[in-house]
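Friendly challenge for the regulars: who can give me the structure tokens for this chain first? No prize, just bragging rights.
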Amino acid sequence: MLKLGWFSTGRGPGSRNLLRTVMEKKAAGKLDINIEFVFCNWDNTEEPNSRKEQREQFFAMVKDYGIPLVALSWKSFRPDLWDSDQEGWRNEYGKEMRELLSKYGFSIGVLAGYMLWVDDETCVTYDLINLHPALPTGPKGTWQECIWQLIRDDERQHGVMIHLCTKEWDRGAALTFCGFPIRGGRYDELWEKMYEKLRTKTLDQIKAEEGENEPLFAAIRNSGAKRELPLIVSTIKQFADGNLKMVGQKAYYRDGPLRGPFDLSEDVDGSIDGE
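First reply, four minutes later:
Bragging rights claimed.
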């Protein structure tokens, strides 16, 4: 059985849906895993707290599943240090977090909507995996930045990947990915409309005027977003089934080193509705 650590900020329905899906797969016998704890960087006593109700629902779900909940409020932790030295604060927060988690043994830590930058020592101590909203060869940054860069570069493919967390944020080795075309079908019409706009405006102007509502941008986001949860679940299954494993912060596929990210496009596409 694969022992997981679960790290989440618990800020909305997405966090709950991810945990619920994994636990349902476990209950159905499709994932041989156990979540040893859920760590949250809020304890929900903070004020102001616009996500209080959402986080209450997340905490209730964790408790209903009988999973130990470990909370360490980033807002109330060493505010004096936060104001003067944020890197030092991050290191101290990580040290306290690792102390709280020291009684739990786990093989893989899943950053499942965890919105706080992980300190270097924690990345070295644990094997942590995270989702990045682009292909391994694609752009870096937030999902918004990635999509605008795709449009700027006139790309033909997009995707989502799971990577190992390292000291260099979003630069850890890619473990798994899924890809999909952003040409053909309905995309061709959306690209043509984008090209028409670009005859009279810059992409930055379009971005400022329409933002995430721009139709091509929105379509690419939708195609990527609906693959994120299936990719996380498929990746966890690869670890649970023993196909993927981590040894000394290095990824292995079955009996040898993982030579490149594992393409799970077929698995992911088979679990989502057609586009």
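Residues 215-240 form the longest helix (26 residues). The mean pLDDT is 93. Your move, everyone else.
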